[in-house]
## 1
Amino acid sequence: HIDSPLPGIKAFVALKGLNEDNGPFCYFESSNSFKHLKNFYIKLFFTEKNITNIENTSRTLSNELISYCENNFNLYKATINAGDLVIFDTCGVHFASKLLKGQRHLMFLYY
């Protein structure tokens, strides 16, 4: 998903370490400048600003766009230590991977 059609900054601090088991944060590198998302961003922006009422608009990408990201961008997985800081652009494609066991403890900061 994306958080916003406009560039923004979000950060989080891992309160406990993240590994493959407890669902690390994932981000498709350079997806914040992904030109194929242009129409998706425009549609989302107009809907959120109540300029138009487009049905079925959400921050979740279609399977086609997800597949494109998987095939064209490197996937960063934040397998990090407690206390590490991750900063990212909110219009890039990101998600929390599947929680296999344990818990994920993060403190988010929005700018």
## 2
Amino acid sequence: KLTVASLNAGTNFDDAPLIYFRDLKFIAKKRTERIRGLIEHVKSANYDVLCLQEIWPKADYELLKSELVGKLPFSIYFPHGLIGSGLVIFSRFEFLETSFMPFSVNGHPWK
């Protein structure tokens, strides 16, 4: 039995407007709380594979990776474009091969 979880972490959205920084990171005011809550949940769960979307700042990925290495020792962050793809996979199993298909943004994602 393989247990897989997928979550849109939404670390760039909040009940407040987005804040745009010079280094092109979209940051929500409660982003750190969300990441910490996610870490605590995953530590208490028994996932074999965890797929996350909207993990935009690489620092969030690095925090998740350092905190989850005991449960999900293998991970990959897919950098792409100006702000990254936001896609991350954590796994109990080593990756044999990975690939990423780039996508384009159409319209205005901030509206």
## 3
Amino acid sequence: DQTLANLLLLSRSEWTKQNLAVIEGPDTAYILHDRGSLTLLGAVDDIVSLLPLSPLVTGVSTRNLHWSLEKSTLQFGSTLSISNQMTAPSADISILHGTLLVVHRMNGIG
């Protein structure tokens, strides 16, 4: 319950201009808000999950993930974008509208 509460704190409107992360063992969680983007640094085969926290997250694009997205729409509660794999030492994620939780699990840590 505490971990979930900490993750949801990142989605609060007063933090939209901040680049904040929650780190727990091998997992690092980030929040993207409207027109947000993020570059993850890691290794090939690291796991990346994208979880919509708003009803819709639109314009979702990814680069260097096994299952790539290009201007896609993700719905709250969808499992479409979980447990993806990095195909390079860095991966890019961007959105146009909504709130997206990004969880990066680094292999070999923890």
## 4
Amino acid sequence: LGLYTSALEVAGIQCHLPDPGEQVVVMRGIQEGVKAGKIPLARDCFGTVGEQMVQRHACEALVLACTEIPLALTSLPGYPDVNLVNPTAILSAALARRAYAGGGWSMSGG
């Protein structure tokens, strides 16, 4: 999460993290939900935490900062205007744009 928090702060975007109890629920959604193939459980866990964060912080967007979260949470019921940001999709799209633009890709970043 530090990677996202730092980048958002540099861009002037305030970042809020799940509180410790919410983090337990997120981890349950990951371990007992997505990784166990129980997507409805994961969706409930992630949705509950997302709703709590939106209510508490009036969030306009939620960064789904773990690769498992977007697999289960594609919308936030009751909050259609909250943007769910999928970093994996954004990074893969940027990589594809670069590759197809002729920029190529290498492990050294060049």
